[in-house]
């Protein structure tokens, strides 16, 4: 029996039981056999969820890039590590071998060093999906700098907030990016962001679109000049297992975005292990995850997990609709992709188009299909299974979070029988529990509750950057000695988990995690707005879309409502990003509130979702009369 590679269901159960009976020895064995350590640990795990403090492989030393790059050079130097597929289908795909990648990461690391970057410094990376993005991430890891990747679809103000929160002195960005038939001026966005981020002294600019940009003297430098001159050998900085590897921001239900901090040793072990098993990765596979490296999915399952296994990982610069809706399938055929991992929202969007876009390609190379980011509905699941997998490729519905670092609940393909919309079983080492309203664990099957995890796993985020109290309050205070996920879930008769969605004020739109509070803050900045409340409502393609209830100040009354709607959405786009724009905006006289002044989102959610039959008891509200008028004027 191999703990590292599960091959059938009985083996899964054996491994799972062992992992729960003795998690320390389970993870120790995997860490020992499959990774390169400069020094072994003194202690596998120490933890206390009440502080909270979690340490894996304490005392161990390593560099994650030696595991992702150097150690493959002996046997896989000429194997493709990153297969870059450009936005423009006529531009040649680039095969970056392990040898090339090692060289380019080393050069980039030397560039960073030449700019004064040291171990522990935070480096902001704001790049499109081009090889330099993965290379920059790994270059930081090479020298022990902490990368903070910000998705290049975020606005200037969202970027600036993230830069300032973790005090980055340097940013790696690009002149622009190609997205379908559009060219976006990324450098302009960065320039605007840096007006509010005076701490950034250096910006390294990657040339991609060759758009004209303004280079600020003394701050902005073209990367290629420095890169060409840099040495191509860079000794890896030796890191402690618990040294931070990266920060990645995720929305909270209130307040500013949370900079989740992931550390080195445990994150490496867990992402590599889950990559191997969830995708049943084998040596000659061509693995493709369509996410952006700006999200955790890209960190764990485009960069670190695949490279730690010596895999070939596809990086796609473009969008699924360009030059037409067959692009994904064309790429699968062209590169003979074996594992394909995407989001339900992409599947729903493609399922709306003509079947011919799928059927004209040969997809017989596919062995495993994956989804992530939000619950997948049955219809989308069947479309994916029938037309992409031809009923021959198991679908892994993988549930996890930015905070968990790696996949937590998922089928093991070819082992776990799948059921549409079920993430099925916990991976080895993961101990889920469901909790009731009285914070008691619900035992048995065919039950529903709030999803928590009882025991630490190696890739759990260790803190929120600069705010450990918030980390404790958000994840460890709802239930004693448990990690609270923020999701609800059902456990069926055989013990399979089905995630039912968020139980807090986070809304998942097209697989993007959006907190209501920051959007409301942006709206409230509009001079005509008095107050606002955002809720999600079901949407065919996006899963959820945003519905805003907005009350106006006197100055706003009588103004053209469509103009106001545009201005408000514009404001949201500049403060957060276009993904957070509202689909529907209803102007209301007031918002339903409790006597303590809390907005009753539950009622607003029901109205937006056309579920007005049973609004519950509204008599205890401060202003029950507004509910009726909101209901009568609802945009449904
Ligand atoms: C939230 C985390 C993990 C990478 C992408 C999202 C939802 C995620 C599933 C799934 C149902 C899912 C949860 C979770 N979610 N995967 N397979 N089924 N819901 O990371 O932005 O941190 O969002 O996404 O609600 O809490 P994230």
UniProtKB/TrEMBL annotation:
Database matches in Pfam families: ACAS_N, AMP-binding, AMP-binding_C
Stored InterPro entries: Ac_CoA_lig, ACAS_N, AMP-bd_C, AMP-bd_C_sf, AMP-binding_CS, AMP-dep_synth/lig_dom, ANL_N_sf
Gene Ontology molecular function, alphabetical: ligase activity
UniProt keyword list: Acetylation, ATP-binding, Ligase, Nucleotide-binding
Name of the top EC class for this enzyme: ligase
Domain AMP-dependent synthetase/ligase: 70-456
Family membership noted in the UniProt record: Belongs to the ATP-dependent AMP-binding enzyme family.
UniProt name for this protein: Acetate--CoA ligase
Species: Gangjinia marincola
């Amino acid at each position: 029996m191999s703990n590292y590679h599960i091959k059938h269901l009985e083996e899964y159960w054996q491994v799972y039981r062992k992992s729960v009976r003795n998690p320390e020895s389970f993870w120790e064995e995997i860490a020992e056999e499959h990774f390169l350590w400069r020094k072994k640990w003194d202690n596998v795990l120490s933890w206390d969820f009440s502080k909270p403090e979690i340490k894996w492989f304490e005392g161990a030393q390593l560099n994650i890039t030696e595991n992702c790059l150097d150690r493959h050079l002996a046997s896989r130097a000429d194997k493709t590590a990153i297969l870059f597929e450009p936005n423009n289908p006529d531009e040649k795909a680039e095969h970056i071998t392990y040898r090339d990648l090692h060289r380019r990461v080393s050069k980039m690391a030397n560039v960073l060093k030449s700019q004064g970057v040291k171990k522990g410094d935070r480096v902001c990376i704001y790049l499109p999906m081009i090889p330099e993005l993965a290379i920059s991430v790994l270059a930081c890891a090479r020298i022990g700098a902490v990368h903070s990747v910000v998705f290049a679809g975020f606005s200037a103000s969202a970027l600036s907030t993230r830069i300032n929160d973790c005090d980055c002195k340097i940013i790696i960005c690009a002149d622009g990016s190609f997205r379908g038939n559009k060219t976006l001026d990324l450098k302009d966005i960065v320039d605007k962001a840096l007006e509010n981020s005076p701490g950034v002294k250096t910006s390294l600019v990657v040339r991609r679109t060759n758009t004209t940009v303004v280079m600020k003297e003394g701050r902005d430098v073209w990367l290629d000049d420095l890169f060409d001159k840099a040495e191509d050998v860079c000794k890896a900085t030796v890191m402690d297992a618990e040294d931070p590897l990266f920060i990645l921001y995720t929305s909270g239900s209130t307040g500013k975005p949370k900079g989740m901090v992931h550390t080195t040793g445990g994150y490496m072990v867990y992402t590599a292990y889950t990559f191997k098993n969830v995708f049943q990765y084998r040596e000659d596979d061509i693995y493709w995850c369509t996410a952006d490296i700006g999200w955790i999915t890209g960190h764990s399952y485009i960069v670190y997990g695949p490279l730690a296994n010596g895999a070939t990982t596809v990086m796609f610069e473009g969008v699924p609709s360009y030059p037409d809706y067959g692009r994904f399938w064309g790429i699968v055929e062209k590169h003979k992709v074996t594992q394909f991992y995407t989001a339900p929202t992409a599947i729903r969007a493609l399922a709306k188009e003509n079947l011919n876009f799928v059927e004209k390609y040969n997809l017989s190379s596919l062995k495993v299909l994956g989804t992530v980011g939000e619950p997948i509905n049955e219809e989308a699941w069947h479309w994916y299974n029938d037309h992409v997998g031809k009923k021959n490729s198991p679908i892994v519905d993988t549930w996890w979070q930015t905070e968990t670092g790696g996949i937590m609940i998922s089928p093991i393909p070819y082992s776990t029988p799948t059921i549409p919309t079920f993430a099925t079983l916990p991976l080895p080492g993961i101990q889920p529990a469901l909790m009731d309203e009285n914070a008691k664990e619900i035992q048995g099957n065919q039950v529903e509750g709030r999803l928590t995890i009882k025991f630490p796993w190696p890739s759990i985020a260790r803190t929120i950057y600069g705010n450990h109290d918030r980390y404790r309050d958000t994840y460890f205070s709802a239930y004693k000695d448990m990690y609270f996920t923020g999701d609800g879930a059902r456990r069926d008769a055989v013990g399979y988990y089905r995630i039912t969605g968020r139980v807090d004020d986070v809304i998942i739109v097209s697989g993007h995690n959006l907190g209501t509070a920051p959007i409301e803050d942006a709206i409230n900045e509009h001079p005509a707005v008095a107050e606002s409340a955002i809720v999600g409502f079901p949407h065919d393609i996006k899963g959820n879309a945003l519905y805003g209830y907005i009350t106006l100040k006197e100055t706003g009354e009588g103004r053209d409502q469509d103009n106001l709607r545009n201005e408000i959405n514009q404001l949201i786009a500049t403060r957060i990003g276009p993904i957070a724009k509202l689909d529907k905006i209803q102007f209301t006289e007031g918002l339903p509130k409790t006597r303590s002044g809390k907005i009753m989102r539950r009622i607003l959610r029901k109205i937006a979702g056309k579920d007005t039959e049973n609004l519950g008891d509204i008599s205890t509200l401060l202003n029950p009369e507004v509910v009726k008028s909101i209901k009568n004027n609802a945009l449904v």
